[in-house]
Design goal:
The structure is a homodimer. Chain A has about 120 residues and is α+β, with helices and mostly antiparallel strands. The first copy, chain A, is built from three helices and six strands, in the order αβααβββββ. The first copy, chain A, has a six-stranded mixed β-sheet with strand order 2-3-1-5-4-6. At the A-B interface, strand 6 of A face strand 6 of B. Chain A binds a DNA duplex (30 and 30 nucleotides) through helix 3. Chains A, B: This is Fur family ferric uptake transcriptional regulator. Chains A, B: Its cofactor is Zn(2+).
DNA sequence: TAAAACTTTGCAATACTGTTGCACGTACTC
DNA sequence: GAGTACGTGCAACAGTATTGCAAAGTTTTA
């Protein structure tokens, strides 16, 4: 199961939701995939993205990814097809926060139209 | 009803979820507030923020806000108290997207600890 | 002013995603 | 072969968002 889920994520260049992964199988329970993804996440194999569509999406981490603030990159959500792309070469810019605010994490989702949908 | 909801949002400096607004009333239906907020949103009085907590939050727009890409600002979610602050003086940085991607909108949520929680 | 038209509200029900409890089955260990 | 650990599927539940419908309230119109 873990191998299969991993392969599905590997094949895709985009981030997939639990539901989308489920669709790739004939007869596998949501909960099974859910727990597989959770295992992956606990072991830093994947990262999850909340792109605001209501469904969390998952994508493989790079080999050297530690899922720490330094590794954060931007995600792109296409308003037309709903696909979420990892912009792994675009780090989330560091912001100078107002006095008293400390930085721990960030979520930067850019929305627009992807090349396939123009 | 609209006046009351507006006043609640006006009083708060942070963004409120549907549930939090509901708490401010004694006996008002979620759906009523929901539709009120929707009306506000349709008329560009408020903007909604999905900070990844699972509940969408709402905050008043500035007078001159058009809710267009130029008006986008950063939001800060405190990992301790869960409150979401509008950083209205911090615009979302413009990113040079890869070839073929067009920009329409963005959601930039910074997470950390707010001054009250340190 | 009374009827008609429209708006707002509350209740109930539903959708969707995520999450957990439990039982069964398989595989591994001794 | 008994015992243990793990993975899977089913069913149920949680939380938020959303909609249909009817009753109540408000405005318009003749």
């Amino acid at each position: 199961m873990r191998q299969l889920v991993y392969e599905i994520l590997e094949k895709q260049k985009k981030a997939l939701s639990l539901y989308e992964i489920e669709q790739q199988f004939d007869n596998v329970e949501r909960s099974t995939i859910f727990r597989t993804l959770k295992t992956f996440q606990d072991n830093y194999l994947i990262h999850s993205i909340d792109d605001g569509t209501g469904a969390v999406k998952y994508a493989l981490c790079d080999d050297d990814c530690t899922c720490k603030p330094d590794d954060l990159h931007i995600h792109f959500l296409c308003n037309k097809c709903g696909q979420t792309h990892c912009m792994k070469d675009m780090p989330v810019p560091k912001m100078d926060l107002a006095e008293g605010f400390s930085f721990e994490n960030a979520n930067f989702v850019v929305k627009g139209i992807c090349p396939n949908c123009r």
